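Re: export button greyed out
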Amino acid sequence: MIKTDVVIIGAGPTGLFCAHQLGIIGLKCEIVDNLDKIGGQCIELYPDKPIYDIPAVPECTGEELTNNLIKQIKPFNFNFHLNDRVQELTNENDNWIVKTTSGKKFKTPNVVIAGGVGSFEPRKFPTKSAEKFDGTSVLYSIKDKTIFKDKSVAIFGGGDSALDWAIELSNTSKVSLIHRRDEFRGAPASVQKIKELSEKNIINLFTKYSIKDVKGNGTLEEVEIKSEEGESKILKADYVLGFFGLIMQLGPIAEWGLNLDKKVIPVNTENFETNKKGIFAIGDICTYPGKLKLILSGFHEGALAARGCFKYARPNEKYRFEFTTASNTIKDRLGVK
Amino acid sequence: MAKIIYIEHNGKEHVAEVQNGLTVMEGAVQNDIPGIDADCGGSMSCATCHVYVKEDWHDKLPKKEMGEDDMLDQAFEPTSKSRLSCQIMVSDNLDGLSVYIPEKQV
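Workaround output, generated via the alternate export path:
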């Protein structure tokens, strides 16, 4: 069990700056994120897209913003728990017990939800029958590629993941690649390679087809694909792989007894606390009159939520406002002279 | 101003007067029309405002910009009539536009 002052859920820009503010006022925090890297939507959705509305930064990319925020909180040495998702929150006296999917446990008086629009999950096949094989022979990511050796593999998708795996697995497996249109969004070199492999009959390429059904008695045997005109084909398949990118799902957050307004959490604008004592929500996931889904708003919300956390983390101390320019205590925390 | 007809998957119709300059997605969100999630808020990065444009309207709409089809690859059951409603700007010309909302967005 890890004891800390605050658990932050979400390592996007809002969560990162909130961590900075916690460090400034002398609190400790642990940061949990479902993705395998720091940066949230900035890194997952638009690492290369320029952002023009960060105050005093005329232009930067999602990746640059993330790297700068990481640099800004470096002096505090906070722990990141990536590839992990907060599953359960339970109340114990004045603390929250936070459990993650990997089995980590935290004890903390404060939880700050900076979860964007939820956690990123792979988009799945729309077909009901695919659920039965989910995780065994219908997969959305590859952990061990050796399982596909000498097997028939049907890969769906038109982006880099689909193309790269189709090329890679075609060395040792019988690969079919199925995509809903003629154009691919993957790298041009990969698209070229796929076309060559298709001409040499190493890969079976089906464009303008999508999944209709997966079939099998106990184990997966075949996949049925359909064109928009309704024509269908049956392909033999031991494995079906879907690469349709990631989608944000609210996930377990919906089960923590928080008030929800559609997919967002109402908060007060004094300290961004939710209807539960010690649980705060900041960034895209919170709502209040006048809410703007801007990164700069997330920064403001994080700064105020951090002060809200102080009250529960140091119940016997009085919070004193200080400027980073003038306070020696803050300079010590930042490790600057 | 244009009248936009949103048809839910179960056939329920919603007619909304949408101001010029807003998108078909914003028209749905502002009028509380269910089935258009618009998670990313209109930055063409999530594919949760996916709609099917009614046959006779499809060719009348301005063509898709770069990137829209790439996002649509990730939508729920996309077809050749699929569009991201955040990329359709409302103008007088779109008066009477009908869009079908898919069974779900993810």
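Chain A touches chain B through 23 residues (CB under 8 Å). The button fix ships in the next patch.
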